[in-house]
Amino acid sequence: xxxxxxxxxxxxxxxxxxxxxxxxxxxxxxxxxxxxxxxxxxxxxxxxxxxxxxxxxxxxxxxxxxxxxxxxxxxxxxxxxxxxxxxxxxxxxxxxxxxxxxxxxxxxxxxxxxxxxxxx
Length: 120
Hints:
Shape: elongated
Radius of gyration: 16 Å
Largest sheet: none
Structural class: mainly alpha
């Protein structure tokens, strides 16, 4: 049984690690770098998509996979929305000559079953 879920478990762990790192990077309030922000949001969205896709394959047989897939979809959407806000805020920043801009992912999604991130 566990052998059948090896790929799923690996995707869960990878996704949880990437989500956790994304949360840490986005919660820093100094030294903002637009390229890094964009990259971590894209990586997190992709990890969540991959994990969600894998868990969907097992969702009918395992409740925890269904829950994980749903959480991954929510986190993927949150990362895409944050990236979208990031692009909008960069445009507003350039137009208004603001000196500060902060970003964050407002989500309660916890991909990777037991691990993940929440906004700080």
